[in-house]
Design goal:
heterodimer; A: mainly alpha; Cytochrome Bc1 Complex, Chain D, domain 2; 2 domains; 11 helices; disordered N terminus; B: alpha/beta; FAD/NAD(P)-binding domain; 4-stranded parallel β-sheet; about 30% helix; globular; binds flavin-adenine dinucleotide
Amino acid sequence: MRRKWSGMALALGALVMSAAAHAAPPSAEMLSNACGGCHGVNGASAGPSMPSLAGQNKDFFIDAMKKFKSGERPGTVMSRLAKGYSDEQVVAMAEFFAHQKSSPAAQKSSIDRAKVAKGKSVYNSACKRCHLENGKDFEEDTPVVAGQWLKYLQIQMAEFQSGARKMSEKKTEKVKSLTAADWDAVAHFYASQKQ
Amino acid sequence: MTMERRNFLKLLGAGAAATASVGLSGYANAATSAGGKHKVVVIGGGYGGTIAAKYIRMMDASIEVTLIERNDHYVSCPFSNLYLGGILPDLSSLTIKYDKLAKNHGIKVVQAEVTGIDAENHSVTTSKGVFKYDRLVVSPGVEFRTDEIKGYDQEVMPHAWKAGPQTVLLRKQLEAMKPGGTVVLSIPLAPFRCPPGPYERTSMIAMYLKQHKPGSKIIVLDANPDIVSKKGLFLKGWKKHYEGIIDYRPAKKVTDVDNKNMSVLIEGIEEVKGDVINIIPPQKAGHIAHVAGLVGTDGKWCPVNPTTFESTLHKDIHVIGDSSIAGAMPKSGYSANSEAKVCAANIVALMNGRETTDMSGVNTCYSFLSEKEAVSVTGVYQVDKEKNAIVVVAGSFGVSPDLSELEAVYAQSWVKNILTEMSS
Ligand SMILES: Cc1cc2nc3c(=O)[nH]c(=O)nc-3n(C[C@H](O)[C@H](O)[C@H](O)COP(=O)(O)OP(=O)(O)OC[C@H]3O[C@@H](n4cnc5c(N)ncnc54)[C@H](O)[C@@H]3O)c2cc1C
């Protein structure tokens, strides 16, 4: 119907009719595609400091967006962009990215083997209860961290250590004896994992 | 699971499209109803065009997509100011080719100049022949209104506002300048591509002068009444790093140039001389948009439907990127990328007889102030149905609270991601 009318309108030299009034609300795909400029196609990031979102735990994603919005989690652009989405839209995006196939970051050359070995033992003593399966699996709102970009993990770990990014009580207790070198080793360990 | 759902929708869509082509299509879809394959032609292999072509193929591989671009490679404007400043040694990391895009997504990439669009016949004329389309995506970037600057010659006073040889020329001129020299940078009235871009350029040139050309300065002649974007942050960065190097002058519109004398005239009267003169001319939609009658009453930009980016002047032709009037979205690479995805999704919907989807877009634009510090402006965009226009979602729009080293690190990953998205 619209086609026919717009064809006639054009013939009369008038404007093509607007389709805006008939459109459905933005789909999960529409919302999520807009993130790709920074986070890569379907959330598979190609940039070392930008986290991949593909295959991420849905509940972690929702929690992170909530914390960016409220200011509880320190952020740069995300502190502002998160405010552009309703709770329902955040859930839709979380589901979209959770269903995307994840692929480990291409970062072999930046990973230090000795740190990976050390990181594995730190992981076993302090992290594995919540970051399951070497970081490939998750519990409640913990993130999938295996195969994530090293640079991104290091930025986050620095924020945990400085206190800028708050930790749960459980996490605070678990990591209280870790040194900066331990944190860095765990980052290398997670980054080395295939998802 | 997403794939399964998509395929299922595609099947549904195919049925609906078949019905539509019998009942409603009229002359427009004659080409497809016979052969069955829908054809999309995309003009321009830059920030908008590559993404539109790729996402249409990702969302519906049954659609035949031809991408027509005059060059065999593309040089990104984003980050080209970092090359002028000396942070990047050359433009290689900002240069993409189209081979992977063609191979991975089955896009037909044609290197040709588009010379005409026949909206009635649904065809595009190029230096390599005529291409038929069912829907056309036009993303040709900007053209310069050089007629508004008397005597303008880009070989003498480069614009470097389309990255490539022009950027290299400006860099060479800066390198050749004697210490204690003067650079003049002329900024046109908004709207132009990349609102913070001229001020980032000011910062990067000032950084270069500070490091390599002691005693030199840069005079910025801004036709606008004030700094157009991220004002407070630029002023802060200039004060912190380039005190005495940047001489910023608002409301100074350059109207004439003297290529022999190396000088410019403001409003035909006030003369300013420079050893290197970088003129960013005022802008309008890409030339082809004017030829095809896609430009609105302002004589500069292309009005579009805010949901589908279909031209309000010609049916089945969509305009995205710098050339389009996208409401509150700025003329940026990120906007072009985001608009391309919205346009692609709705072209696929229309071709499959499905309902279109409201747009949701993002813009994030970083600007460097020094080697290690950057700032950003962000926004999430949606359609205001009453205004029938794209507006920014309250709260999402804003700039960085301060100069930030972390944002410079994120900016590097942004350019890597967005160029990877365009080229693979
Ligand atoms: C110095 C500078 C810095 C910038 N920094 C940023 C930034 O940090 N972030 C950001 O988001 N944006 C930035 N931008 C803006 C960004 O470059 C543009 O907004 C973006 O390129 C627009 O995309 P587009 O697809 O509309 O046009 P373009 O990317 O220019 O692509 C148009 C393409 O169409 C081709 N073409 C045109 N006409 C024809 C024809 N008739 N036949 C065949 N091919 C044709 C051209 O060759 C070109 O490849 C910057 C711009 C400048 C100048």
